[in-house]
Amino acid sequence: MTGPRISPLPPDQWDDRLRRLLEASPGGTEEPMHIFATLARNPELFRRWIGFGGALLYGQLPRRLCELVILRTAYRFDGRYEWAQHVEMGAAVGVTHDEMAALGGDVDSLPWDALERAVIRAVDDTKDHGVVSDTTWATLSGSMSDSELIELMMLIGHYLMLTFVLRSIGTEVEPRAAKLAAEVQGGPAA
Question: Could you tell me if 70 and 155 are in contact, meaning their C-beta atoms sit under 8 angstroms apart?
Fold first, then answer.
């Protein structure tokens, strides 16, 4: 594929909601995030998705744990766009470049704590078997409430969905995000 199958909306077609969102996003309106400017082509779905995605991104789970899950999901499901965006977001909540490199390659190269290892394994189980294994679930449920477990499963599923959608519509990584992602070893292929 060369170029996007569905292009981002040009600035003269942005509504106030999209403009405000882009202004508050990395890159601002000078280098708008393609995910938002593209998905906004379906305004009603976009409005609802922003609420759902925000609820997952800023829900009950600690932000660092969310970013570990998102980065591992992006790597395992070939989500180059999400990987590139979440390198910066992960760093902002304390995920180091060494940890990102492990998430984007040999996850066993670092000594994660038990919960971190379990959420990473939940992503791997989902990729490898389509379901979180009983062993992984037992570890997760020993540290997380039912509500948190549901949120974790939704977080994995949401970013799996995003990787599929963004690859299928050909969403391109913005130069700013691509540059940040290039500073980390590993991750999905460019």
Answer: yes
Cα distance between residue 123 and residue 114, in whole Å: 15
Residue 190 confidence (pLDDT):
57
- Per the CB < 8 A criterion, the answer to whether 56 and 149 are in contact is no
What is the tens place of the pLDDT at every residue in 121-133?
999 999 999 999 9
Q: Are 74 and 187 in contact (CB under 8 A)?
A: yes
Q: How far apart are CA 179 and CA 56, in angstroms?
A: 26
Q: How many residues does the chain have?
A: 190
- The answer as to CATH 1.20.1290.10 being correct for domain 62-182 is yes
Return left, alpha or beta for 129; rule: phi > 0 is left, psi -120 to 50 is alpha, else beta. Answer: alpha
Mean pLDDT per 10-residue segment, the chain (190 residues)? 92 96 96 98 97 95 98 97 97 97 94 97 98 98 98 98 97 96 87
Q: Where in the chain are the domains?
A: 11-56, 62-182
Q: Which residues contact 5 (CB under 8 A, 6 or more apart)?
A: 168, 169, 170
Whether pTM > 0.85 for this model: the answer is yes
